[in-house]
Design a protein that fits this description.
Layout (H helix, E strand, L loop, with lengths): L1 H4 L1 H22 L24 E3 L8 E6 L4 E2 L4 E10 L4 E9 L4 E9 L6 E4 L5 E2 L6 H11 L9 H10 L11
Antiparallel strand pairs: 1-2, 2-4, 3-4, 4-5, 5-6, 6-7, 6-8
Helix pairs in contact: 3-4
């Protein structure tokens, strides 16, 4: 009789951990009991730097070199991973974007574009809506989400983890639907 009840404490502890963890994940993902998800105030774009660029994996046929400034990667309290992405064509033309990816909904948003031709060069704010990465023209953002930032539809747990995931180049596992 006593043997039947031995697994009971472990089972109860597992259930408590599951419910507590699920609640924490829901809160982190912006699904708090107080209402629907809202984007946090967006910090200004960080200074443009190519000192710590990490290449973003793109298909072989791509004519662009794309990199993420690892020092710019930040995980917001709203679950959005914000970063600066720099692109360069074979001819040497450059562009840079300050963007955010929301893994939970698999969306991207551009906050600013770097104007290299301005005097002095600098960030220009842009007003865009969240765009579904499945439909987005931003192939590089989709590849960053798929191969670096998002593990399925889950955001990283910290800024440090987001940076580690980008540096590693692959999320630990993928959505069976192929994101």
């Amino acid at each position: 009789m006593n043997r039947l009840f031995r697994p009971l404490p472990a089972l109860l502890l597992g259930l408590v951990a599951t419910f507590a963890g699920g609640s924490a994940l829901a809160q982190y993902a912006g699904e708090e009991e107080s209402g629907p998800w809202q984007e946090a105030p967006v910090p200004p774009a960080p200074a443009l730097s190519s000192r710590n660029l990490v290449a973003v994996e793109l298909p072989e046929y791509s004519t662009l070199k794309v990199g993420v400034d690892l020092d710019s990667v930040e995980l917001g309290k709203d679950g959005v991973v914000r970063y600066v992405m720099q692109l360069q064509s074979r001819e040497g033309a450059r562009s840079a974007y300050y963007q955010g990816i929301r893994c939970r909904t698999y969306e991207v948003k551009t906050y600013a574009r770097y104007d290299f031709g301005a005097t002095p060069p600098g960030w220009q704010d842009v007003k865009t809506d969240w765009t579904d990465l499945h439909d987005a023209r931003s192939r590089h953002a989709k590849n960053l989400a798929r191969n670096g930032i998002c593990e399925s539809y889950a955001p990283p747990i910290s800024t440090k983890e987001a940076r580690r995931m980008i540096k590693r180049g692959k999320a630990a596992w993928m959505d069976p639907a192929g994101m």
